User: Fold these one by one.
Assistant:
Number 1:
Amino acid sequence: MSTILDLHSHSEASEDSRAPLEAYLNWLKLRRTERPVDGIVLTEHRQFDKNADYRALEDKFSILVLKASEVETDYGHMLVFGVTDEMTRRFDFANVHLPAQVVIDEIAHMGGVVIPCHPGRPNVGLFEHYSKKPSLENVAAVEVYNGGSRKGEDERSLQLAERFGYGEIGGSDSHLVSLIGLCATRFEGDVRTIEDLVTELKGGAYGPVDFRPRRKPVQHAVAVEVK
Amino acid sequence: MPQPQRSYHDIKIGEALGPEEMFLSKDQVRAYARTTGMWVPRFTDDEGARKEGLPGMITPGNMSLALLSKLVTDWIGASDAQLVRVGTTYRQPVLPEHTIVLQGYITNTNDAERTAEMDIWIENEDAEKLVIGTATVQFAKS
Amino acid sequence: MVDYDPNLIGRVFEVTDPVPVTAQMVAEFCQATGDSGPLYTDEEAAKHGPYGTIVAPPSFAVTFRNGRQFFEYIPRFGRQGFDAGKDVEFAAPIRPGDTITLSSYVKEIYEKTGRTGSMVFVVVRSTLKNQDDEVVAHVDHRFMNRP
């Protein structure tokens, strides 16, 4: 039984998001046909709230809600899945210059998994760093579909993921309610907990899915006349 | 065209604002810059903007906020409601002499407060979101 | 982590001189934004509207600016960047004939990395009041600096 999860999203807890979690889940319920997502992962910027409990909302909407974090490293932004107290004691998640290789290896050792996000972004994505520095070891996967990508960025991510043999995931990177679930990851296995997710990301079968609507051509509009 | 007139109970989560396509000309951006006291090279002159490392003259962020606010106040129309909050994040420069699309969706309502929350954004011709934001509309409480 | 004087946070650093609002300013603003909303442009319609007179569109509130020394008051971190965004609460309409003052303080400073690399954000809150000392808007400006 497959599971489709949006692996990258930000609620109001991230300073640049304006989306309450309940509104996200309600939107997914409304848009179920176009975005058949079974769950989302909240990947708040530079923080992890171990006490946040979303079970009541999960039950209300029958949508899985898992927690992770998006941290900032010397090789760009990365998603940390399976966050534990040990990890937050070891690394200051608010530090915007975390050492990527150390983070990847030590978090794997502590039972989690770290996945670079939006690697195809110019200037700051993982692959931009690879053009100037040695490539990282032990990268399980990268995010090849990101809902905030600009023209060409996902394509670049896909090309480079293939070149390095990385697994591929998708996530909306939504900061607005209506953008949740636009990109996601389909897992062949059943994912019901964060432990399941980490297991699947490390060794399971999965791939990115894209629910972004095809854009209709923009009509020629008329300029406003100004004096 | 008659203005829309909505009551709070007419609103549905998922309802769209726009999409509204407009061609944003350099003349219009300069008119905004002139009238708001922002007559500086980055908003008025391609060469001057390039000297600041920009691709050409750009639209002031305040103007993008104004266009998105207008999307909402047009939606309000003659309804007994007011725009009470708007928030914007400028992700990419909005370049004039292009067609932009202003769009939004109602994402939440609050029955006790009689407010509607909406996502609003400006897209370019490649469907890239240049400016994103949210707005709150307050309907009359009586 | 960014280094700054924590006493800066919350301390009002500027109150501007009153700026008079004219009918011409409102009309030109509406023209430049393509806004023909009757409450903003049609005296007869506005008379019968909720405010009794022509009012400026809500976003007119962000056109009021700080003084020339503004950037000397707020901390800078490397190269001054751009306007990163605004959050505006509209409290009362602005009318031709009003005079508006701004009172500003640094609300928050934080660091993050994004598409253009390392950035430091300085958030300045400005409160706009009219001649009756009535709050018409709160504007949070986010300025992005590149260290």
Number 2:
Amino acid sequence: MAQHQNMREAYGLALVALGKKNRDVVVLEADLGKSTRSVLFKEAFPDRFFEMGIAEQNMTSTAAGLALAGKMPFCHSFAVFASGRAYDQLRNSICIPNLKVRVCGSSSGLSDFGDGKTHQCVEDMTIMRALPNMTVLCPMDSEETARMVAALEDWDGPAYIRINRNDLPLLYPEKGTYRIGQVTRMREGKDAVVFACGIMVSLALEAAEHLASQGVAVRVVNVSTIKPLDQAAIIGETAGMKAIVTAEEHTVIGGLGSAVVEALRAVAHAPVEFVGIRDQFGISALNYPEIMVHFELTAAKIEQTLKAILPR
Amino acid sequence: MTSPKTIRQLEKTALQLRFDLLEMIGVGKAGHLGGSSSLAEIVAALYFHKMRFDPRNVKDPNRDRFILSKGHAVLIQYAALTELGVIPREELKKVKTLKGVLQGHPDMAVTPGIEAVTGSLGQGLSIGLGMALAFRLDGRPSRVFAVMGDGELSEGQLWEAAMAAAQFKVDNLVGILDRNRVQATGPTKEIFDIPNLAEKWTAFGWQVIAIDGHDVKQILEALDAAETIKGKPTIIIADTVKGKDFSFAEHNAAFHNGILTEDLLRQGLADLERRRDALAHNPAGD
């Protein structure tokens, strides 16, 4: 059993580390700092922390102004508000001028299991991916989160980072290097490939383990940069595979699965199937595992999906 | 005190900016004449007198910033930047065409001298606030002038920004309200009336200065006064006339974004010539 670590705590600590290294890093928060963990930055650098109140639109355009004056702002809210409530501000005041603003969509996916439809966000990758210039990141664990935040220092243009609120298994290889855009093979396999992001990477590894005992060798690939997607790497990972499955804690419309199929559109490839949420909003649940089962975001579902398209 | 000569010079500059508006819009092309013209004196006072802005060094980090939250009026900013030599004059006729660099709304990515992307209404004051906070952090002398329209004030984000600017006590941010009382589809009184504006901004924690937005002397005095107010932001509520100095466009929502015919263009030029005569013959400054 892998060790678990809280992703948003790791995010907050990484933000402080970056703030220590780079004086231009400033942080904006919409009254969720204790949850997003931007509060750690506030404690370390109170002068560079701006509590904007529950006003995400103003926060986002204010970040544009800070970037235009030479700062590197990180904006925070729950993913649903960071990407949705402030969509027009992201589009017009940040993405058109290609400003170096970072948006943290915290409590993403179903990870805020109790709060239900209004607070869960299963469409943020779709809407962020549609914006020209926007980079879309979805880390699989705390270690990758920390490396991503550090890598954002030298990354041009706007970026959206999707943060899960729960404790996730630590998967990142101890000696692994990281760069934005990286597509990482997490497990070798010659029969089929699963492309996954976020928490689904750990579930895909679980499914692969189970399938191995049945004689099916499954490769698991972590795609944590949804955009810009390394299309050549995606095509390369499918070479010789007999089935392709994508897995995301997100709607299947426009997210990782769509991005992978877009990458494969011009080459001959094996059948593809998506594991994800089927054009639905979330729902309130008692705990994280329960809601993941409800939406069939499980290792068993990945296994079943793969078997269904794997030629016999 | 600003000399009568300076005031007269700025009045003449405003007139030239209005001539430029006609050159840009020309015949058969839609253009936001009304809301651009209502800003001519304010833009002249800022770019040609008040702002720390060197046209030969438009990226100077210590320059003042002009943010046009009511981005559709960008023609008046293009006019000023052209008269300052930042935008080549030949661009004026190519405005809003694939061949030119002058977009329909402010786009800093393609147009020299433009400071932000605005035009989706309600965002400029927030952008200005972000700049003001950065300048304060860095100890820069730069000031930010964010121009809003009165129709635009129905955007909730402006009031979010108003609260935030007061919360952060920024005094290097000046809001300028171009209160021309006409919005895209009619008089603000009939479309979406927002009464007691001075009281609202005061209640939001801003210093309010009310002026005639076509009176250069009042504009300069208000801008000077704003600089002396510490610990809170200032808004200059400028009463203006939409389509000012164009006989067919004054107070007329049809020229919010109207098309000029040959006759109207001729009329507009004649209106401005009359204004030029008046400026030439009346003694300055009294």
Number 3:
Amino acid sequence: MENPETHPAEGQGGDARGLGRRSFLAGIATAGAGAAAASVAPVRAAAETAPAPAPVQSEGTELPGARLVALETGDPATEIDRWHVKNAGSDYMVDCLKHVGYDYITCMPGSTFRGIHESIVNYGGNSKPELLSCMHEEISSAMAYGYAQMAGKPMAILVHSTVGLQHASMGIYNAYAARLPMLVLVGNIADGATRRPGVEWFHTATDVAAIVRGYVKYDAQPASLQSFGEEIMKASSMAMTPPYEPTLVVVDADLAEMPVEGKPLPLPSFVPVRPPVADPAALADVAKLLVNAQNPVIIADRLARTAAGMAALVQLAETLQIPVVDYGNRNNFPTNHHLNASWTRGLAAQADVILGLELTDLFGVVGDVPDLPIRQTTMRIKPTTTVISINSMYLQGAGNYQDQQRFFNPTLPIAGDGEASLPYLIDAVNRAITSERRAQNTARAARWSDAWTQRRQADLAAAAVGWDASPISLPRLCQELYAKIKGDDFSLVSGTFQQGLIPNRLWDLDQYRQYSADYGAYGIGSSLPATVGAALAARDLGRYAVNIQGDGDFLVAPASLWTAAHHKIPLLTIMHNNRAWHQETMHIQRMADRRERNPDRGRIGTVIDDPNVDFGKLAQSFGVYGEGPITQPDQLGPAIARALKVVKNGMPALVDVVTQPR
Amino acid sequence: MKLRTTIAALAIAVCLAAVGSHQATAQTTATPTAPGDATRGKSDFTKYGCYECHGTLGQGNFTTAPRLAPHTLPYASLLAYIRKPSGVMPSYSATILPEADAADIYAYLTSIAPGKTPEQLPLLAGTNLKPK
């Protein structure tokens, strides 16, 4: 099915495409095109100024126009080919993408970028970048989000002007909030004189990047191919400089579809930017504070960008035997490490020193605003607690969006990338630690090891309650799944908060690629396509991906599964099908209770039943193996085994499981 | 596109999880002891939305609410907490949750028998208990 936004009613404004939309004869570059004219204007100018003999009129005939006369009587050697384009500008654009090293580019087709689309698949051989077909631009952007999580590098997305970018906006916003890189390429037609009347005007904006400017790190609208190349390099390096975030470059249709004239355009140099490291003197102060603390705690959020980040955090924690709370937005710390204290209550309240590493919400660590009718601020920590924050977000200003959370000024705020700074902090700790302090490590390790075991025992006891329930409990779902995959190279690519963090509590996740999830800005509908993107990256790493998928999120962009099937992406999706937007069910229930009226009506508008959605059949309709709904717990394990067999053969599969709410 | 408020969700999770620690100290001044009907209570457990946070068997979970069954608190303690919770659980006043219905819900919760222990469940029994 064609995109109705892409192919409007034919004939609007006449068939300008007889000459190619960017007709050579349609007009010279406008002043606004600026430097663009340098590379493409000569071709147009030649056509505009071609000498034409005086027309001779015969009776009953129309005089041929100057254009036709020029074409019919001109020197064949210099005659302009009205039908063909050699050395298209978009070929150079593809060279730029290859030069940076983009492996993939997602795309729902759109006419404003048809030039570069064709160049990718033909000139570029549809490899590095390979075009990934998507059925919605939100899928395109969310796939790039998930890919960046798992691959540690950006994917490019190609979106239609205005309407396409509007669709893609939420995935871009999620990536911005999650500090993930992405290169957004958006088609546009800058020159009004070459736009066909009608739809092309709707699909062009004077400043198209304005749609998403509040949540991209940088945007550019290059007016020449040379500038395009430079902007791709700049946007790519900025996206990959912490804090990572999306960047955007406009692909002007004229530049893409017109030929490159003259000498081949050079490819600008691309050298990734080294991440910012915290001030050494500040790190020395941090080391002293940690060494001298009695009850320190490390809290890590969007810290580990690579496996090296996880290893460095382990090294820092072990050097001083400091417990670590992993907020789970990156795979920062092994779940089976004795210093993993992520679920030990009250650590921040008891701590004398808190080291926050890349915290998205520092205030949320030290304080709270409970969801009560009267919103009051409460503090979790003692007034004397020393709070240290190492965060690359100090390097970025805030805009319209409030993703940087409430202000809290720590004792020692330090600007710098957490992962890049950790090795230097470890060195500083090793210089500061005394033999006396080192001697305490054995006792501290034993204390935290015991606490870890007690916590896991308590978690197991809690997981056992309701084990045979129908609808199926989330601990049962998670453990049935883990039993099937724990010996494999799997990657859990979905967030776990909605499942009570059970995988983080009960699974031994000690490899960086075993878990990669983040809710970003919590835009519902992003999770399913993000897992497809993450699964693609996992596939390239020799792994298969596992997704525990909420039903409400699924139904926003179910066609993500088609992309997974079309591109043969091994992704096992286990539905957490509670037949509701359950978070909202609880919210409306709260409102009804608070207002003392009809608590039994709190579910209206937040449940997904009558009729129930058959996710297994929905998956099948996209060419994905699907089965369910599974309502009895003893049926779950065999169903997962059947689906996993499909996934291990390189294809996606889905099992619909009717579950407890949470 | 509807965006979900992460902070609110996390606040609910953290604060409701804290309910469990407050249960033991809930006020016990009200001491109704009316026996309830477990069948009606099961229906009411859904009707009043209790299952939304505590699960259909009152099993609780790690992020939204504590376990209510098995081993349910004394009725007076539970009712006192329902009326005046100390965490962020919404209050169920007598206006919207008559005491008779509360008694039925209590009867349902106390009718839920303990299940197997982790040691009796193969998928849990093999879980690693020794950290690295």
